[in-house]
Amino acid sequence: MELQVSVRPSRPPFLPEIGHRSEQPLKGLTTMSTVNRSIRNVFRNKARTIVVIIIIGISIGVFLSMTIVNGNISARTVQIAEGLDTMVIVRPAGSYGPGQFGGGMSGGPPGQGSNATQATIGVLNESIVPTIETVAHVKSVQRLAVQMSMPTMGATGGRPSMGLTQGLDPTGKIFLFSGGTVTLASGRNLDASDMSSAVAIIGGNYSSEKSVGLGGSVDINGTSVQVVGIFTSGNRFGNNAVVVPYETLKAAYSIEGPSSIYVEVDSIGYMDAVENQLKSALGEDFDVVAASEMNRSPIQSSIESISANSQLGSIVALITAVVVMIFVMVLVTRERIREIGVLKAVGFKNSKIISQFLIESVTLASIGFVVGIALTMLAGPYIASGLLGASASAPNIQGPGGFEGRSFSPVSNIDFTLSLDLVLYALALTIALGIIGSLYPIIRAIKLKPAEALRYDE
Hints:
- By secondary structure, the protein is α+β, with helices and mostly antiparallel strands.
- The chain folds into two domains: 31-80 and 300-455, no CATH class; 86-291, no CATH class.
- Helix content is 46%, strand content 16%.
- It has 13 helices and 13 strands.
- The strands form two sheets. Strands 1, 2, 3, 4, 5, 6, 7, 8, 9, 10 and 11 form an eleven-stranded mixed β-sheet that branches.
- Strand 7 and strand 8 (223-232) form a beta hairpin.
- The protein is elongated, with a radius of gyration of 37 Å.
- The two termini are 48 Å apart.
- The model is unreliable at 17-28, 99-121, 152-158 and 390-411 (pLDDT under 50).
């Protein structure tokens, strides 16, 4: 008696269990079962999955790190550019200094006193202001007039202390002719609404010596002005200063016009062009000079170079991440063209096949994204330090009056923080690249006949 044994082939792991008696074996396949099957398939080949996840994670990590570094560098270069002195001074030809000098300060603000002598150095005609304002890249125009005095040694019995009363249009940055930086200790600064108001900000030393605080009054040559702010400047001269709106000083001292005009340029890169245009427009009766004595071209070139290199690094990192992810997803999907042929042979619809493989790709990409976030937080700061370790500081820059210098620090301190916007952007990019990378080989494979797909050999 002959014994017949039939051997039923084992079911491939990527196929669902299908009852052999069902007339419609694939009817019971739900969306949920497709998702579950796709996720199981991701971890079917653990070695391949781990390699793919690591590659995706590294690509995303490098991209995120470079994006954060680029953001920090861009912000820092903006701060550096804003911190550079972009003032151009217009003054009468042959003159130097902003105003008038005296020799005493027995009472009231600088420039007053029994032994104060005034010496007018030269004033500008205010009619040139509209001409200056029409020059391209001029951000603001501020008229300046100054009254300065120094007590005699006999009057004080000690070290003389020069004081300054400065009238300045409050339409731009409030600065001191004597140098230093106006840093408010209390109250407020002057602003555009104070153009002709009887208000003042005073230095800390002046406030202490004269016992004048916020809300108090200062006498400016017979004109009472209210103190709205007290500041420090970083130097003795500036701390003894009184700053009022130009129109207020002009009225108090009956001056004919400003002793100099400060022109703020909107970018350090246009400083030379603005200087040349002003010289051409105003003629030989005026000196047009930069407030600072720095060599601007190398500094501007350095700022532009740092910003460009940073943006280039971020773009290269993005392109690399895109190419790597698409390449990896294409390879992973191409390896399974025969599998797609089997699925088609047993009756899977194209839509089911596409959805299964896309879910697998999104799952892989999402896990790789999580790994990329972890790598960014762990290794990102070290990447940033390596990129920025060779940063150098710029040279010292003098202030408007030439008395005080300042320098900006190198771009070395990175705020390595992952913002929610950046995380969401990276997640969307990762998922999109995963879908794009797998979609092409999937569509190509489902166009093949099942027999051709089964014979496919890479």
